[in-house]
Structure formats: C-alpha cells, structure tokens
Amino acid sequence: QVKVAESGGGEVQSGGSLTLTCAAPGSTLFYHTVAWFRQAPGKAREGVSCISVIDDKTNYADSVKGRFTISRDKGKNVVFLQMNHLNPGDTGLYYCAASIWEQCDLNPKDFGSWGQGAQVTVSS
To answer: Which residues does residue 22 pair with via DSSP β-bridges, in sequence order?
Structure first.
C-alpha cells in the first residue's frame, strides 16, 4: 500500500481559503484514485472529494461543490484540495486516502491507504 501524507492545514477565518496537499513520499500517486475525507468532533467521517485514476474524473460532496477543487499535479506527484469560501462547518480533520481502484464515489471502504490527517479550523 502506498503511504500518503497530508500538509497545508491551518486556521482561517470564515470566507477564507486553504489548500491541502496529499503526497506519497518515496512512491507515486500516479496510478491511484485519491480522495479527501474529513471528520469533525463527534461526527462521522464524510467524503469530501475524489479524483479518479481513470481520466482524472472528479467527484464532490454536495456540501463543497462550487467551493472546493481537487486536482492532480502529475509532475510533482501530489494531489491538491483547494478550499475557498470556507465556513465553520468545514472545520475538521482532513484525511487523504488512496486507492488502486477507479471507483470515486467517496466510499471509505474503497481506500486502503490513509494519512494521519491535517487539521482545518474555520473561525466565524
């Protein structure tokens, strides 16, 4: 299983922006579907966005459509999650996950590799 690691979390005011980065040190994400999940305190983990290994097709949770953008930089072997117009409801621990399968329906069971998480805090 490829090992992934997140970076770029932090604290921002409501309406602000952050970019999260998912990397696979010593390996490659080129042949993987990569997704972002998040978990707020006391809540279940939810899928945020995904980019498929097939043609880089993307998928977004309804709650982030139009505000978040997932992209893959194949040259740098990373996947980004650009988050704009953040609100306090976006606060949580954001996880990067990788899968060898093409499915991109934000089901955590499809993903075998998980990072440690990056904290995103949005203050009102």
So the answer is: 6, 79
